[in-house]
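for the writeup, i need someone to sanity check this before i put it in the appendix. the sequnce is what the collaborator sent (i think, or maybe the updated version? ugh). structure was predicted straight from it, no edits. if anything looks off just tell me and ill rerun, i have time this weekend
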Amino acid sequence: MTVQDIRSFVAGQWVGVDNAAREIHSAITGDVIARAGNGSLDVAAMLAHARSIGGPNLRAMTFHQRARMLKALALHLGQHKDRLYEISFATGATQKDHLIDIDGGIGTMLVFASKGRREMPDAHIYLDGGVEQLSRNGTFLGQHICTSLQGVAVHINAFNFPVWGMLEKLAPTLLAGVPAIVKPATASCYVAELAVEIMLDSGLLPEGALQLVSGGLGDMLDHLTTQDVVSFTGSADTALQLRSAPHILRNSIRFIAEQDSLNASVLGPDVTPDTPEFDLFIKEVSREMTTKAGQKCTAIRRILAPQAQVPAVIEALQTQLAKTTIGDPRDAATRMGALVSAAQKADVLSKADQIATEAECVFGDPENFDLQGADHDGAFLPPMLYHCADPDGANMVHEVEAFGPVSTIMPYRDLDHAIALANRGQGSLVASVITNDGTVAQQVALGAGAYHGRLYFNNRTSMKESTGHGSPLPHMVHGGPGRAGGGEEMGGLRGVMHYMQRTAIQGSPDILTAIGGKWVPGATEITHDAHPFTRMFHDLQIGETFHTPAHKITSDDVAHFAEFTGDTFYAHMDDDAAKRNPFFPGRVAHGYLLLSFAAGLFVQPDEGPVLANTGLDNLRFMKPVVPGDSIKVRLTVKHKTPRNDQYGEVRWHVTLTNQDADLVAEYDLLTMNAFAMG
């Protein structure tokens, strides 16, 4: 068998192994299939390359340009995923496991690409929150902004998901405008190497944006600066060793940790064996025990069931787990493949022995189980289910994680007891609760939320579309307190912010407008001879403003609007009743009547660049308008966002004032405007 040398990508060049390389074994056969590691990698050159070339190249791109790059990268990976499938079998993963790792990673990158286009500006500065008025007259304001860190992100990934684990970190990092040095776990680094090669060969990444270390990092972390970030996935012991290094602490270097945890799944007290939730619970637990051979940081390690239901749960799980076909992951009939290595198998058995001091094994004998299409030289284990009858007196089941197909069922007396047991994990990535009772869900959220990064509730309503206990989604945060690492990943744009610096800026409206690229009330208004609705998207200037003449509101207007729309609320129809309302001086005009008149005042009716009105945001009514009052409108270009190569979104700031110049209403109008006519 040919032994593959796994390369690193260093400062724009592929670098091979040296005599410091470690052997990598097939999870299926135990044979040596690869070597990885180079003890003489020039880590200083890697860091310099990222900071001086990769960072400036990425920061020169806008958020939208980076988002388009991510989408193109994801689609390119999708075109080559069969190559990734094929090489991943040697990790012990089945084809179903590949869908989680490879397709899941590609899907995560696509979500970040979409969020970058939809939720971030086509600019280099991200505005975080609204403008704060810091002075009486609004001439001195505050705003929070986020800008790209000017360093490098070092990603240290776990062995279990070599593609997803890399892409879920890489996508928000690149979207933030920060270059990455990826260090995959050695046991599965050959999969990550291929994924990196595919991305680099695409030509989509700017120079210096991505580098790869196959093997050890050497002393790289000792050369990081305050602008750098370490993002780590792995064991709590390794995280503690890395994050407590004096250089990391002394320089307050950002360290994001996502650690393995003793996640729990709770069978709700309302669930009995004759309900759909019971069957759902059994399926969830058995799937989490066997997917990736239980090598998931989110896998269910502790199964909590009402005391009366424990025998039924054990019996149902024994039946379900007995259906698991274990064997060569390349065989389509296989439902659970091997652990990643013999070393990992030995570690799982050692941890299982510790659990066995407090719990009885009720399913799975590692010395005697059926294996299809493979032999026991591979890193195979059966699902192993334990029963701990006294979870209050036990410690190991709440402290020791066997990172494989191992889980322990334990009884609880009542829901408060279940919450207390779940929290004994001292911080977990996820806990699931299978219940059809909203009161149960609320009690768990209040009692266990502080100990968990994610709470997953499922029942008969959501079961067909739910994504599963063990599936972190890019839209939601992935991480947890305490033992789980105290960090967060993903979570939509929250994940991007880990690689950016939030800064408070203070100044005049014009200064804030110039910095953020979004017009701030009080900033200079730009006038133009032509109506803004006649001007193309690219011709419009931030701050360009149109003032309308005044329009008088009459009693007939109010009555007609009420009759036409059917909105005959008493405040619009009965002067005496309206006066008894503390908010109104008497009969008042409808708020939506004012918006309709406002549109009539500022709209230019001819065919032109404005293609569609797509919505109103932040609508507020500040002061009632009574018959006899007059209103006028100020329409200002607040922000512009290209949407494709034909049109873009214009956000207009709209204010309505009365004859006394008092603010009556305010909102943002959204329109789609063409780049050109024809």
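The two ends are 64 Å apart (CA to CA). The first strand starts at residue 4 and ends at 6.
thx in advance!!
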